[in-house]
Specification:
Length: 368
């Protein structure tokens, strides 16, 4: 039963939603830098370049996409395949321990898929050697530049082979996506791009750090939520919660770290980008998307959404000029105005001339 179906008229998710919005930096104080946002959330889903930049925009004030790219160019942030085998944006200082916890669970599947694509183990090893050598001698290089190097050695990059070869090199801990190069995200060699590793922690220490950092940006949550978000086993997630139990506070909805936060208000109406972290942190998205789940996510694609009262009430697109908002339920004039104002902030963030904001209503109301 979702909030719209509750016969008492009381939203059963309201308190949980407010606590998680506060943890997600979507209500209460905002962050002041891309690194602060990413450090707070620990890892931001990043297969959509516009999406991870918008995730930072929604949690800060006055920054621009250039600030995100500057953090990438300066080596403070990077993108690579981590949690669940999906591209994530992380602080460079968090890369190695997150990689230790998550990458080994995904690598066998990528190598198996390469064999299905006709790239056998010998060709995989040869291609990865080419990638690393090229980056160490001539990097940073874009995927297109690396494709040319790989094909010159007679290894196929057709279809999905190239992206799986780059994923394999990343999951083996050899390369990551670092700076921007002419609008493309370039790859770099880990050994050259990142500072030398300090003394390594063991598995138990990594799990303890994982649950504590996860709960900062996602609590209240439970072991099942952590397992799904990070792509670790449920057994490891339970051990992580057990090990951190002395510092956890139990709520009806799960654990939080330290004192129970003041849930406060749900935050202002806001435009969230595609694949926003608020849709990926837990087993269930129902508290945020309710009856709109089939509209928000289709075939693994998560659309850009409109958040009002802490709930998804619409989706939006950002064509060449302006913003088009499709509302999925009734939204009053004041909240429409604030969504339109936030659309202007989206344009400013990307350095674009602010265009018209148009509204349409899925229930048949005329555009506004």
């Amino acid at each position: 039963m979702g909030p719209d179906d509750d016969v008492t008229g009381v939203d059963p998710f309201e308190q949980l939603r407010r606590q998680r919005l506060l943890a997600q930096l979507l209500s209460g104080p905002m962050s002041d830098s891309p690194e602060a946002v990413v450090g707070h959330l620990l890892a931001v889903q990043a297969q959509d370049g516009r999406g991870f930049r918008l995730a930072i925009r929604s949690r800060t004030s006055g920054l621009s996409a250039v600030d995100v790219d500057t953090a990438l160019d300066g080596g403070r942030l990077l993108v690579t395949w981590l949690n669940r085998g999906t591209l994530h944006l992380v602080r460079s200082e968090d890369y190695r321990w997150l990689h230790r916890l998550t990458a080994h669970r995904v690598l066998p599947g990528v190598e198996r898929r390469l064999r299905q694509l006709g790239v056998d183990i010998g060709d995989q090893d040869r291609a990865l050697e080419v990638i690393v050598d090229a980056l160490e001698s001539d990097g940073p290089l874009t995927r297109h530049q690396l494709r040319d190097r790989i094909e010159a050695e007679g290894v196929s990059t057709e279809g999905q082979a190239l992206v799986h070869l780059l994923a394999a090199a990343s999951l083996r801990g050899q390369v990551v996506r670092g700076p921007m190069a002419s609008g493309h995200h370039a790859f770099v060699a880990v050994g050259q791009w990142l500072a030398p590793q300090a003394s390594a922690s063991d598995h138990a220490e990594d799990l303890d750090r994982l649950v504590r950092r996860y709960l900062v940006g996602h609590g209240p949550a439970g072991p099942e939520d952590l397992a799904k978000w990070a792509g670790i086993t449920l057994g490891d997630a339970r051990r992580a919660f057990s090990g951190a139990a002395v510092d956890l506070v139990e709520t009806d909805a799960g654990s939080i770290l330290g004192l129970r936060p003041n849930s406060g208000e749900p935050g202002p109406p806001r435009l969230l980008g595609p694949f926003d972290p608020v849709l990926h942190g837990w087993v269930s998205r129902e508290p945020f998307v309710g009856a709109h789940r089939s509209v928000v996510t289709v075939n693994g694609i998560f659309r850009a959404t409109c958040l009002v009262g802490g709930r998804v009430v619409g989706t939006w697109t950002h064509p060449a000029k302006g913003v088009k908002i499709e509302l999925l339920e009734k939204v009053d004039a004041s909240d429409r105005h604030r969504l339109a104002e936030d659309a202007g902030e989206v344009a400013r963030f990307f350095g674009r001339v602010e265009g018209p904001v148009t509204f349409s209503d899925r229930d048949g109301d005329p555009p506004r």
